[in-house]
């Protein structure tokens, strides 16, 4: 392609090239500029990544719309400015970790060198490790912040940058705006080296203490013969998870060899997300080979947990809410103090609130995201928190979702039930008999293309501005625009539709080009569990179908299950 790039864009590209420390990225942009490829340069420059409460997340590529060494360098300069603005004692240090995605090592190096160059002490992970370890180490070391290079369960082309505050949980507004503003204004960075006395490598003993704490809580005395199949989905959870389970007495853990070693290409998966259809297929096949009754999976940075249980009709993949109910039924018993709290998010099932009310434990409903759930207890103690997207916090040791400790807690519950001749599916039946049916369903649309943000916004705003008056035969009793706040929640982008037997929440994803819809339909406790469950599930599916006609973005978005 040969053409002339408009002067304003050419000037921006030239300025980026002059600042970019990566020779390959400089060469890529220079070639696009020389070729006059204005369309590709627009893709890389028109919509720069912005630092939000989820940090940065996007495709690894040259230019401000991608994850690259310069975008990471400037984000870290923003973090340095934020630390100064908050008066942080930088000698306490920042914990820095990374997963095994493409670019993670290079980006990790940028974070370390920028922090050291700014006089900030660094506690660096010794190798690619799970995201929950960063949160754990911030708290254990009394550090002022933590940075994790990860895109979690995003597609292989992506990477990201997550920021934790001094409370070891992810930042919330207005801290993200401080980082973003400083990153936008950042000039040349002063870079330090690992020989600086402020640089520390986190020792194995600190990570061992994480395992020892959880083993003390969830280990099976005398060991367990529960058969488990485990996969880290090509991520960094494999070794830590299997070591944790073994130390807790679970000796019959069979791993999926083809998915065990970290591999940023995720060659066996369409999407490296345990929520996606087919993601657990290899693990279920492995379970069949060894006669295991439980499948557990972590996402690539091991902060989420997926699971499947062998039942009378074959394998059943558990929904995130179902895992939340199971863990909640186990962990509510630990909430015995007056300041103990359990929490879940607005897009998750309401059953945890009903369970907590009966147990006399305060339950807090937050906005979507563990940055809110982790803070739900305030000055109290969060004994359990979860959200439907497979995020679970089972111990106050980590102020974030943690797929490793959640896997251990779920295995312990499955072991205890097996000793009684029962399964996790039996426990789910018990819960719905006691608290009523809570039929949950959700759907999302992944939107591709340069115009994805505009199409996503148009689909959402069309529903918000003209919401339905009925869902099925039921009138919509309440329409709440979350941008105005709702029931004490801070403002956010989202819509709630309330009907007599449930509710719908519609929101754009905060980390991916997706539009998401969550439905919950409830029915009172009844001995006729099977019939009530089938009717409620059918109604939930019908509501989703109704909304699908309104929300499926057009022209062609790629619809995918959540």
Describe this structure in words.
The protein has 562 residues and is of the alpha/beta class. It folds into three domains: 47-200, Alpha-D-Glucose-1,6-Bisphosphate, subunit A, domain 3 (Alpha-D-Glucose-1,6-Bisphosphate, Chain A, domain 3); 208-433, Alpha-D-Glucose-1,6-Bisphosphate, Chain A, domain 3 (3-Layer(aba) Sandwich), CATH 3.40.120.10; 436-560, Alpha-D-phosphohexomutase, C-terminal domain (TATA-Binding Protein). It is 38% helix and 20% strand. The protein is built from 17 helices and 23 strands. The protein has helices spanning 7-19, 23-35, 38-45, 69-85, 104-117, 132-141, 175-185, 204-218, 238-247, 281-290, 320-331, 351-359, 370-373, 403-419, 424-435, 452-465, 529-551, and strands at 56-59, 94-98, 122-124, 145-149, 158-164, 199-201, 228-231, 253-255, 294-298, 305-311, 314-317, 340-345, 362-366, 381-387, 391-393, 437-446, 470-471, 474-475, 478-481, 495-499, 502-508, 514-523, 558-560. Strands 1-5-4-2-3-6 form a six-stranded mixed beta sheet, sandwiched between helices. It has a six-stranded antiparallel beta sheet with strand order 19-20-21-22-16-23. Helix 8 (204-218) crosses helix 9 (238-247) and helix 11 crosses helix 14 (403-419). Residues 554-562 have low confidence and may be disordered.
